[in-house]
Design brief:
The complex is a heterodimer. By secondary structure, chain A is mostly helical. Chain A contains 10 helices and 2 strands. Chain B has 14 helices and 12 strands.
Amino acid sequence: MPLQYKKNPADVVFLTTTAIAAFSVIIFIIGIFYILVYESSPAIGRFGLKFLTSTEWNPVKESFGALTNIYGTILTTVLSLLIAIPVAIGIAIFVTEISPNFLKAPIGAAIELLAAIPSIIYGMWGLFTLSPIMSKYVEPFLKEITAGIPFVNILFKGTPMGIDILTASVILSIMIIPFTASIARDSFNLTPSIVKESAYAIGATRWEVVKNIVIPFSKLGVFGGIVLSLGRAIGETMAVAFVLGNNHRITTSLLDAAATITVTLANEFAEADNDIYLSSLFYLALVLFVMSFITLAIAKIFLIKAERKYSR
Amino acid sequence: MKTILKLTVITALLLSFTYVNAAETLNGAGATFPYPVYSAWAYDYSKIAGVQLNYQSIGSGGGVKQISARTVDFGASDAPLETAALLKDKLLQFPAVIGGVVPVVNIENIKTGQLKLDSDTLCKIFLGDIKYWDDAQIVKMNNGIKLSHSDITVVYRSDGSGTTAIFTDYLNATCPAWKEKVGSGKAVQFPVGIGGKGNEGVANYVQRTANSIGYVEFAYAKQNKLNHTQLKNAAGNFIEPSFESFEDAAATGDFDPKKDFYLWLTNAPGKDSWPIAGATFILLAKEKADTNKKVVKFFDWAFKNGDNKAKELVYVPLPALLKDKVRAYWKEKGIY
């Protein structure tokens, strides 16, 4: 017979408040999903799934398609992750394994500050400071060194104007570095020092310790940090809006302007005055919602699989 | 705990004071373009009349939506509504102030006002049919100016805006190819070019990109000393954008009270008219006579006392005749 005890009233209050807090998240998500579907139903009825494959975005002719936006969103997200992940892991390795103690605190604080800067400030900084640098120095340089290489040179065709996918991705990557970096740092710190010390004791170099012990040990945590960055990169709006050029076309060059879902929403929501236009914007938001859901779900599956492998 | 209590009491007191002060408040929402002049007028008006104006610049589309839903006392829109649309939502409409759009360029060795364009070349440039600055059509119009064989970069507004609506309405009205391929509206699918966010985005892109052309509000071009072009107007004269040429456009434009002043002020017939002008409009809910009277009182005050302030901020006040027409319209609707 189980042990009988009187429930402490404080415990009950604690239990219910935390349960309400936890369930409210689910209710919010369902509520948002419902509103998105409800508001976009005219557009869903009119364009159906063709919305996802159509490249037309023409408010005058009331003909809308999401493909250019989806393309821009995926491209900037992937590019920014490609830039950000190595840098973030580099930062984390430096802070945990290499830097002298007196440097750890200031660098850590600087990373967290980077995360605290509002995105609109990144946007303005990108427009006025970064994009001239990109157009004057970085992009012509990239054009020059890739000029002779087939296929790669397609990526850098066109006039370098600094208002393009590349610049937007660079800004995005700066914005997401702190997420990956600080989580990677925390998980690196969790590596038991006894294991590291044993490795050093048998004569491993610093690089070997990082490569063979610290990184494998904290793979999961780092991956979690990357997923968090991914979520931020998909949804980032203002920073990108200023430097992407909002161009509803599919381009192969990274030096061309493009559009992302969030930027289109931010730019066009206030002035969308006919119903199908507004509804299409909601449809676009729904697409983004589903996209983020799918990417996060895939990431979660990977995490679970990795966890199983690891615990074996 | 005590400090928190104290803070709460103080905040509550402060809030109650602001509540008393805010007793007489007019709520408006809409177009971003006239926001600076409305808020400047409101500041002066509150000092003499004690009426606060709370204007949210959320965009013309938002302004129409808010007044249709009756959540504000007045809406504001850069794009006029046709009588049918006004009847449907039971709205009144009148113009408040005039603005305009000017093409701005960044071409080496070309000073402001030096380059001459007409509607056809402007249209072809924005369609991407004219690709180089030394195109025969441009050169023909600009005798004596050296234009190099360089690519034209077109810059447009990426966000939905009344500026784009006025600009594309002008191209629509003057250029059949534009009407057929693109059309007019607050956001359109531009065939070529890159999009900047807001007037500042377009201005920045044009200033930075050699051999570019874009369009911004007159006030913005003037304040930022951007290089504007001349344009050929409906009467066939080349015109520089100025207070006078905008006023001339407003004076010769046919604002008809019977149509609730519905008019796109593009391609006005006057011989000194700047061809791409536009009025920004105020929308009122028909049934709210009492608040309408207060709103009208404010604009009446602004019409009488606000012209200098408007000019300071590079807006063009309504011509006296049009103001009288608006007052007659108010009287007819029983709100003046």
